[in-house]
Amino acid sequence: SHVATAGGAVASVVLAILVHGFGLHNRVLGYALLLMTAVMFVGAVFVYRRRLNPPARLSKGPWMRLPKSLMAFSASFFLVTLPVAGILPEHFGGWVLVAILGLGVLWGVSELFFGMTWGGP
After folding, report:
1. Which terminal residue of the chain, N or C, has fewer Cβ atoms less than 10 Å from its own Cβ?
2. Angle of helix 2-16 relative to helix 27-52, nearest 10 degrees?
3. Transmembrane ranges (predicted)?
């Protein structure tokens, strides 16, 4: 579960920077990003399930919400990438969908990147 989550996260971040940051709207990169966000989401679900009844050795506290941040990050980037991959029309959903997914991306990214530097999510 940790390998899928971490591997999917690293690959998703690199691909998201290429696809959405640099605007390389390539169908192959879009499908690769969809695959990696799906892998990350599945890994995050397994991490979440493990934390439902955590063993004593598992860190608790603020780290208990990390799987939710990982799922928000991966699900939001998955949905944002569907038009790039050609699965949905380019302007699907309009500004309402952009705002909702933007909040999901912001939540996931802020906890992943800022939380790591502050010692917790």
Report:
1. N
2. 150
3. 28-48, 69-88, 94-114
